[in-house]
Amino acid sequence: MKIQWNWRISVLAVLALAALETRSPGQVSYGQPYGVPPQMAYSPSAMTFAHNPGMVAPAMPYAVPASYAYGGPAEMTAMPSEGYGQPAEAACEGTGEYLLHDGHRHGPLGKYLGSMLRMLAPYSETGCCAPHWFDVHAEAVFMRREDDAPFRELVRLGPLGEALITTDDLAFDSLDPSLRLTGTWQTGPGSNLEFTYFGLNDYSEKVEARSSANLLYAAFDNFSLDANGVPVAEAEIEQFHQAQYQRVKLDSDFDSFELNYRRRWMGPTCLVQGSWLFGVRYFELEDRMQFFSFAERDAIPPPGVDSGGDALYDLRTRNYMTGAQLGGDMWLCLLPGLRLGIDGKAGLYGNNVKVNTTLTGHDPFDNFVAFIEPEALGNDKVTFIGEMAILLTYQFNHNFTFRGGYQMLWVEGVATALDNFNSDITERIPTMADGDSLFYNGFTVGAEWMW
Prior knowledge:
The chain is mainly beta. It has helices at residues 2-22, 44-51, 73-77, 108-120, 221-224; strands at residues 90-92, 97-99, 105-106, 136-147, 153-157, 163-166, 176-188, 191-199, 203-210, 216-218, 241-243, 245-266, 272-295, 309-335, 338-363, 368-395, 400-414, 436-449. It folds into 2 domains: 98-127, no CATH class; 136-449, Beta Barrel (Lipocalin), CATH 2.40.128.
């Protein structure tokens, strides 16, 4: 065993010594220089010159230029001075200039601008041919709601006075936030199942009116006017007429659940790509309108004088929509990592409509408690829902992609609170309206995540 180990150590030592003898420090073997005939490799004078750069090249037909000397300084100076073996932002001595990745010299301002542009540039390693794909997507959607319900006056100062509260005061003009979440499950090359939730919004508007002289008149029973538009001598419902304080509040929200199958396609040059989808959707829309009125009177009213009290009109509409939809998207590659796209889908839905109304009042002196019995109306009909978004995506890295854009949503043929406001009390006839149209629009911002 000792003989074998001694033999192995001797062989390794000989090989190491041979390597040290054949390679001098700083010498790099580049092979045969371009343009030098092979015969020069066997010329003693040429080999002597190659290993001694200071010697003069011999005069012969195939003399070796000084710039081809292996390992000599002439070889290094012949190499390009920009972009080879230097840092990406090396300073050029004595010039105040900087060498950037593009191989050109720039001043200090150009250096900083170039650095900023590189920081702002999207992640481009995936290129334009990478499909628009994500595993999880989440975004905040800020939309306002536009309603085509007819204009109505709800509260006046006196039966023929100015309008203090109207349906226009209950418009959802602000951008209310909502949330959209999407998860995907790949089913094959270029295809996947998607589950999307859209909701968690809360549209709400409240308007108040006050009168110390008890001159607030509500729209119920035509502001206490007779058929000829003349104020009646004495209001029949003092809680809504001759009131001191009145408040109207309108709330709305929706929730949407989708299950879609999506199939992707790619254009021949990767400049344009997109997908088509089909699936099912459940969409629930709810409105609630509350009209509160308070009429204060003396603690011990004179005989025959209305005593006042408070009243609450509560109206709630619900739309339960289920149906199929078709859609798709298309994306234009502006540059690798930056895309502009349009996404849309639409469908017809069966809508189960519910309208519930209650109107209660309380007279603390006459012990009067209710005005009308609770009403519950319903209907089944066909509804349309359409959705479209114009989006811009910016890929931050391999996993994260930011997205944002303009979002639109149409809902046609639904029951809303303002459209179902019924002001008749003394001669009450229950009614229901389910043909309202809503339009939501605003902006969206979020991110996509890919494993």
